[in-house]
Amino acid sequence: MESTQSAGGITGNVLFYVSPEPLNREQHAKLALVHNDKPYGFAKTGTAVPLTVTEFAPAALSFPVIFAGEDRVPLAVMGLNNGENLFVNADGSIDPGVYIPAYIRRYPFVLANDESQDRLIVCIDKGSSLLSDTGDTALFDDKGEPTEYTQNCIKFCDDFEAERRRTDSFVQLLKDNDLFELKSAIFTPTDEAGQPGQPQTVAEYYGVSEEKLNALPVEKLKELQANGALAQIYAHLVSLVGWDRLIAVAMVRQAAAAGVVVN
């Protein structure tokens, strides 16, 4: 993958990236990574973050994995309100044990479309606070070649793109088998006496229908099992229990903001 391209024809709007530009040895010769043990402040507004299919199982331990939009894009739900991420703290840290999606881990690097040459090129978010001319780990060495750190980041982006294509194939498989249905996340509040109130719809999203899945022919289920798709489907279904955790985290955050102690 090329890492030193001229600007021009770069397209696409990517979550978290403010000023993406092609990585270039002339323009970015002095640029370096700023070491920060709490580097995730850029993701604090990421309510739903894209996931690749191989991330479903680890992500399911932390938050709901859903599908959204006409393309049924897999997302990790990390907040209940727009511009809110309940797992990224104000200081840029993430609580121990919470899975960090690869989409977040690759930042401030990203692949972008170069329409003029019909290919993907490596870009960086020049507006990122993680990059500076006075940073700690250089992007290029004295000869103008990508450092080992930069090479590793480029490989990570290439691997992510390969996983993204694999994810597209997985989603298409679910579409071909008509396994999607519209689902709702429901929250039932309780009053001061502990009595249940009126159920409230927290979110609507697309997910795999267990009824449709169970109705598939045995041969098709064996095929899904053999190609690994069935395990990912079950990871998605198990993750939906995470709506309860997400709601609980939101309630604790709201209570803390209001100065209320929650037992």
Automatic annotation (TrEMBL):
InterPro entries attached to this UniProt entry: SapC
Pfam families: SapC (PF07277)
Protein name: Peptidase
